Amino acid sequence: MPAYHPPRIAAGEITPESIFLNRRGFLAGAGAAGLLAFGSSVPAGAAALKASESPFSTDEKLTSEDDVTAYNNFYEFGLGKGDPKAKSGKFKPTPWTVKVDGMVSKPREFGLEELLAFPLEERIYRMRCVEAWSMVIPWAGFPLAALLDKVEPLGSAKYVAFETVVRPDEMPGQGGFFQSLAWPYVEGLRLDEARHPLTILALGLYGKTLPNQNGAPVRLVVPWKYGFKGIKSIVRITLTDKQPPTTWNIAAPNEYGFYANVNPAVDHPRWSQASETRIGEGGFFGANRRPTLPFNGYEEEVAKLYAGLDLKANF
Ligand code: MTE
């Protein structure tokens, strides 16, 4: 990311947890009806999503829905944190299909309705952006492994590549003379990272379908990695035997690596990664900063994936 953006967010905007938990109780009852209401088509705009609770969720205080949906990185809509919300009104997340191909026995396309039919779980995860801010977000999604199982990866597949949609007519950051990044935005994981139970495809947050600015209708969430690995508005997933190119590594290879595991011991060349600001807690610098945790606090679950790998060299 080119700059170190201090948040333009007022402190004290946290939705009281009791309100959110009440709504979750309501959704547990109303959700089945909500899903039935989808029928074979997905309504435009936010719709309620039913998601069961998960042991992988943190009980840390949630970042407010206002902050989660107004302070975003989605360069297809512009570089400012407010651009994705302000400039994504023309973007149409339905209808939608995701093509899954490459080194698999059963390549195929998945319609959004099929993705919504996977058993959805609520995953409350910390998200740590490489810019040294963090949030706690209640996602609704399902393990990526469940999707991969359907297409049966070949034994030779070693990596999973992801691609965001290209629609300059609906995404103003993809049009015009100045292009911030090369499109499509692309990302990748090793196959074992992709199959890890913490890795999900998210279809919603705060009990509703994803807003455009958060990557509607489907995005990746890998909570132990910097947020830029969480590619939004995915249209293609390809199994391959080669390490896939990734957008930020292409843009600045000395600053952003393929692995991008959250690591307080490896500083960004232009700033420290030792600590972070939790959005909504006020003040980008000073007393409110909290230490950044190795693997963003998911070390116990994922450190074993990297045995023998030099994480300082493979940043
Ligand atoms: N995906 C696409 N297609 N384009 C982007 O610009 N930004 C990334 C990631 N996914 C980005 C993207 C970055 S830098 C971060 S920190 C997260 O999305 C932000 O997710 P959020 O806006 O939902 O918090």
UniProtKB/TrEMBL annotation:
Binds 1 Mo-molybdopterin (Mo-MPT) cofactor per subunit. Gene3D superfamilies: Oxidoreductase, molybdopterin-binding domain. Transmembrane segments: none annotated. Predicted to be exported by the Tat system. The position of the signal peptide cleavage has not been experimentally proven. Mo-molybdopterin binds at residues 72, 75-76, 129, 164, 214, 219, 230-232. GO terms for molecular function: oxidoreductase activity. Its cofactor is Mo-molybdopterin. The keyword Protein biosynthesis does not apply. It comes from the Bacteria. Signal peptide: none annotated. Pfam families: Oxidored_molyb. It is an enzyme of class 1 (oxidoreductase). Belongs to the MsrP family. Heterodimer of a catalytic subunit (MsrP) and a heme-binding subunit (MsrQ). This is Protein-methionine-sulfoxide reductase catalytic subunit MsrP. It comes from Aquamicrobium terrae.
